[in-house]
Amino acid sequence: MTRFIHTSDIHLGRRFGRYPEALRNRLTEARQTALSRIADAARAHQAEFILVAGDLFDTATPSPRTIAHALEVLNEDQALTWVIIPGNHDPLSSDELWSRVRTSAGPNIHIASEPAPLNIGSATILPAPLLSKNTALDLTAWMDMCDTPADHTRIGLAHGAIVDFGDGEGQGIIDPARATSARLDYLALGDWHGQRQVNPRTWYSGTPEPDRFRHDAPGQVLAVAVDGPGAQAQVTPIETGAFLWRDMAIDVVPGMAPAVTLRTRLPEGTRRQTLLRLAVTGRSDLAGKLALSDIVREVTPEFAWVDFDDMGLAVEYDAADLDGIDLAGALREAASELLAEASDTTLSEADRKVAGAALTRLYSLAGSL
């Protein structure tokens, strides 16, 4: 039986410029330590080798520190064999990068820089390294013609899109029937950051440490076992991510208590390691909107980061809301004028939103007095 770990898109050295400095440092460190968690998964599952299907580094010019830290982990356990192909972020044309890696790489690290079979134990790995950032060629085509020992498990290793993912990330370059045409027992793919099974013998591992909200899933690697040539691959996802990136959407309807709904749906137990993007849409009364905002302010410090968007939440104002501000006097007059403007369909939507926001603010301030 051949046992191995399939991973990809580790993107060491990735920058997180839009986030606060303290969080940037934590996210960067989580990516760097992902290699150690991958190695732990390999040892736990008695893997003979680890396949990195491209984009070990985020750029063709990572910092010397990033390269040094990566090599320290890769070289740490000489019993672990790593097979790495360049991807579109760190293509083979990045001569300086891969030259530095090879110079310091131990004998357990194989940088597959050409389409040639690599024998490890009872497996033959057929790599398709990316030569440049962009290519219109299916670099896995050579696998069809490659002969390997009859008693060896045939494993393809490539980086690229096998289908059009519809978000600009993939353009459908790799033949989806490659595992069949090349007689592969398993085709290990990288490029798509979400884990995906294309067919029983073809998988995207996804990234071991997510860096975006797009896939809304924990970081994972795949533990793969193949019981000899022609056997069905047994694939087991193993969680490796340090951070969770959660997308949450709440659609509010009149009569619903959005704050209560939010409390019941917020993740528990891992908030310090969770980045949350919360979008609220629908319609609510003024009290409901403010209660929702209050809860978000309350729980935000518990999370690694929170992005709260309630621009799609329309507020239904009524006279009872004005009573909550003041029953009479100057504040009541100002609130009445704002309510009239927020409800005036002859005004532009932008002007109505400004008036509504001002009324909401006034209501909030009055409630705190």
Classification by helices and strands = alpha/beta
SSE order, as H and E? EHEHEHEEEEHEEEEEEHEHEHHH
Give the strand line-up of the largest sheet: 4-3-2-1-11-12
Uncertain segments are: none
Strand content: 15-25%
The name CATH uses for the topology of the largest domain is Purple Acid Phosphatase, chain A, domain 2
Give the CATH H-level superfamily of the largest domain: Metallo-dependent phosphatases
Average pLDDT taken over every residue: 88
What is the CATH level 1 assignment of the largest domain? Answer: Alpha Beta
Radius of gyration over alpha carbons? Answer: 27 Å
Whole-number count of domains? 2
CATH architecture of the largest domain: 4-Layer Sandwich
What general form does the structure show? elongated
Structure description:
This protein has 369 residues and is of the alpha/beta class. It has 2 domains: 2-239, Purple Acid Phosphatase, chain A, domain 2 (4-Layer Sandwich); 244-368, no CATH class. The chain has 9 helices and 15 strands. The protein has helices at 21-44, 64-76, 95-104, 178-181, 258-265, 286-299, 319-323, 330-343, 349-368, and strands at residues 2-7, 49-52, 81-84, 109-111, 118-120, 123-128, 153-159, 186-190, 196-199, 202-204, 220-226, 234-239, 244-252, 274-285, 305-316. The strands form 3 sheets. The chain has a 6-stranded mixed beta sheet with strand order 4-3-2-1-11-12, with helices on one face. Helix 1 (21-44) packs parallel to helix 2. The longest helix is centred in the N-terminal third of the chain and has 24 residues, at 21-44. The mean pLDDT is 88.
